[in-house]
Amino acid sequence: MARLFCWMIAAICLALTGDARAEDGYDLWLRYAPAAQGRAAAIHTHATMVAAPGTSATMTIATQELQRGVGRMTGTTPPVAVTIQPGALWLATPSTAPALPVRLDDLGAEGYAIRSVKQDGKAVTLIAANSDIGLLHGAYHWLRLAQSGVDLDRLDIRSAPRIGLRLLNHWDNLDGMVERGYAGQSIWDWWRLPDWKGPRYTDYARANASIGINGTVLNNVNAKADSLTTPYIAKAAALADVFRPYGIKVYLSVKWTAPMELDGLKTADPLDPAVAAWWTAKTDEIYKAIPDFGGFLVKANSEGQPGPQDYNRTHADGANMLAAAVKPYGGIVMWRAFVYAHDNPDDRAKQAYSDFKPLDGQFADNVIVQVKNGAIDFQPREPFHPLFGAMPKTPLMMEFQITKEYLGQSTHLTYLGPLFEETLDADTYANGKGSTVAKVIDGSLDGHRLTGIAGVANIGADRDWSGSIFNQADWYAFGRLAWDTSLSAETIAKEWAELTFSPDQKVVQPVVKMMMGSREAAVDYMTPLGLAHVMDTGHHYGPGPWVSDLARPEWNPVYYHKADANGIGFDRTRTGSDAVSQYAPPVAKMWANVKTTPERDLLWFHHVPWDYRLRSGETLWDGLVHRYDAGVRYVADMQTTWASLKPHIDAERFAETETLLTIQHREAQWWRDASIAYFQSVSKRPLPAGSAAPAHDLNWYKAQKFPYAPGHN
Ligand code: GCV
Fold first, then answer.
1. Cβ pair 507, 501 in contact under 8 A
2. Does 425 lie in the same domain as 297?
């Protein structure tokens, strides 16, 4: 009787509250929500069983994922068998089925084909690949299709990544703090590793494998030497063991002076034989623990980090010494080009090119130079980095920032797909028209086989992984674009919205619309018309265009916008820093001329008078104010759209997004008001008709302080 009573109470509570954990974001895009009746029947027809003769760990994961997905979508978990029955999802590689009815020659080690075929007279869905990892990727693709409205009867899909290394970079410190992290503490529980390997590591691997990510750099590029000690190598090895069957390798960031700090060497000079011997021994130790270790990522001679230049050696000297150590194991070195020096008075945007361009052709063949998307630092908008297309003899990999240090951190809805797409599609003109950044990094432009793309992760211990539901879309978009740079940000947004919320177009269309304009809105309320780096100091949260008192010139926002009584903007033409000359002639010519520079990049390249006429006919000052207004308005529109979706979204995720949009609107208004208050104190122009005065005077904005803003080391 008592038991019956307890059961009734529990049932009533569940009915009233719903399953509290059901939609808290933990499942990411792998929710496999119950499908509508007709669709569930269609899925079931094509997935009555999973036929998979292989027995590897990866094959087991693939079959279990299909069982889980189909089970959740249809309510019936398909059995696994070794013989094929009609309606089977048939997983096959040449080693399990030598005569496959599909070509595999162009799919490489990770690609797959999905095809509706008749095998021995039975209609089945074949997922075929050269390897079990390819099958796992194919299984995830089929699950995506099943969750959308796609006809599962006539599938004929072939997919293989063009970029070899598709990596997350974690800026996670050993004490659990994540530099520029806005989703809580690090998910790596270094303290309890290697013994405790919580289920989250497996779910992390699942999520990444499902979008094709195949590597992860575990620790911050601002590295501690400790991550190379024997106990920490064992911890990294424990993670590698979890990730391996998902096709994900681990990599480590290294501190250049590790040989001195850990073993008392007198120098870290890369040409010193004792230093090289130390790295060789350390590498041997790592590979003993992690036989498929990917290699090293290095931030050297940048923002106070030590590096080979401290010993009058070049970046190539440093990279090649490490490359020799990992070479026997097939490892690689990713050497970052994010460098600028306090004693170099040249435009910060030019310094990486000046350092690295002369080194083209000097790097070992297992070194890849990792270049940020733009020359400053992950701004809401930057022109593509001038190194893309400028180092034809050196493989270059892209570094995007998925975590939104400069785009609203964890609270703003600013979908990064369009930013990634804009950079990848940018034309460097290095080998004539069509020499896109995507072609530089996929190696096709200059014939490189070592290719890569990295995204600085937005992952933390928050239950929803990324600090908000919509931030998950940035992780998703990064993975999908890394796999296939030709996908559009909009296609990816649509796919993500279907998986995350519902395939119902009443939900998908408005969500995609919100997402697609959201990054441009952030550009408008933060850094319109090509402005950059006007965020407040250190934590980069909120506006600080007035900041001018920091030790290094390039740490100050005034360095970037150069607003004065005459106008605003950084002259990067020949009359200024001449950064334009670092680009191929057609690009340089376009940006050198104020009239041919797209207005979105105007103040990045030109110092323009306040009364300069924009293409709309309005003055620069009026246009600037109007863009701030437009950015705030867009956020208000997103609030309205989201409110209209209330009947279609589960309560928990609806409420979170609703609240975050309220924060975003308040902060967009703050950005707009603070920026206008400051720039008006310089321009001395009246506000255009219809634009409201800032809510406070400039001193109020200047007085705002945020000593505990997250993510700041
Ligand atoms: C990891 C910017 C960030 C730093 C980051 C650095 C880098 O300067 O603000 O937090 O350090 O980029 O990419 O190395």
1. yes
2. yes
434 CA to middle of ligand 1, Å? 31
Q: How far apart are alpha carbons 274 and 259 in whole angstroms?
A: 9
Check whether residue 456 and residue 357 sit in a common domain: yes
Same domain (yes/no): 591, 692 = no
- Which atom of ligand 1 approaches the CA of 179 most closely? 10
Kind plus residue range of the DSSP H or E element containing 243:
helix 230-243
Q: Is 144 in the pocket of ligand 1 (CB under 6 A)?
A: no
The residue to mutate among 168, 180, 404, having the most atoms of ligand 1 within 8 angstroms of its beta carbon, is 180
pLDDT band at 8 (very low <50, low <70, confident <90, very high): very low
Q: Strand 165-169 to strand 156-159: parallel, antiparallel, or no bridges (unpaired)?
A: unpaired
Q: Across the chain, how many H-helices and E-strands are there?
A: 21, 16
**Could you tell me if residue 12 is inside a domain?**
no
Atom of ligand 1 nearest to the CA of 399: 13
CA distance 485 to 402: 16
Ligand 1 pocket residue status of 172, Cβ below 6 Å: no
Tell whether 101 is covered by a domain.
yes
pLDDT tens across 61-118, in order?
A: 999 999 999 999 999 999 999 889 999 999 999 999 889 999 999 999 999 999 999 9
Percent of the chain past pLDDT 70, that is, above it, reads 97
Which among 628, 617, 607 is positioned nearest to 680, based on CA atoms?
A: 628
| Residue that terminates a domain, selected from 606, 629, 659 | 606
Task: Return the residue whose CA atom lies nearest to atom 12 of ligand 1.
Answer: 377
Ligand 1 and 400: CB distance under 6 A: no
Cα 219 to Cα 225, 250, 451, 469: the distances in Å are 11, 10, 21, 24
**C-alpha 282 to ligand 1 mean position (Å):** 26
Give yes or no for residue 321 having a pLDDT over 80: yes
Whether pLDDT at 11 is above 80: no
The CATH number of whichever domain residue 546 belongs to comes to 3.90.1330.10
Calculate how far, in angstroms, residue 619's C-alpha sits from the geometric centre of ligand 1: 36
Please indicate, yes or no, if residue 9 is contained in any of the structural domains: no
For ligand 1, whether the C-beta of 171 sits within 6 Å is yes
pLDDT of 214-257, one tens digit each?
999 999 999 999 999 999 999 999 999 999 999 999 999 999 99
- Taking the CA of residue 180 as reference, the ligand 1 atom at the shortest distance is 10
Q: Are residues 124 and 242 in the same domain?
A: no
Which active-site residues does the annotation give? 303, 377, 405
Minimum-distance ligand 1 atom for the alpha carbon of 299: 14
pLDDT digits (tens, 9 = 90+) for 183-203: 999 999 999 999 999 999 999
Of the residues 377, 399, 535, which should be mutated to test ligand 1's pocket, given the most ligand atoms within 8 Å of the CB? 377
* Residue 91 and residue 199 in one domain: no
Q: Which helix (H) or strand (E) holds 370?
A: strand 367-372
pLDDT of residue 693: 98
Q: How close are the terminal C-alpha atoms of the chain, in Å?
A: 58
Residue range of the domain that includes 392: 165-500
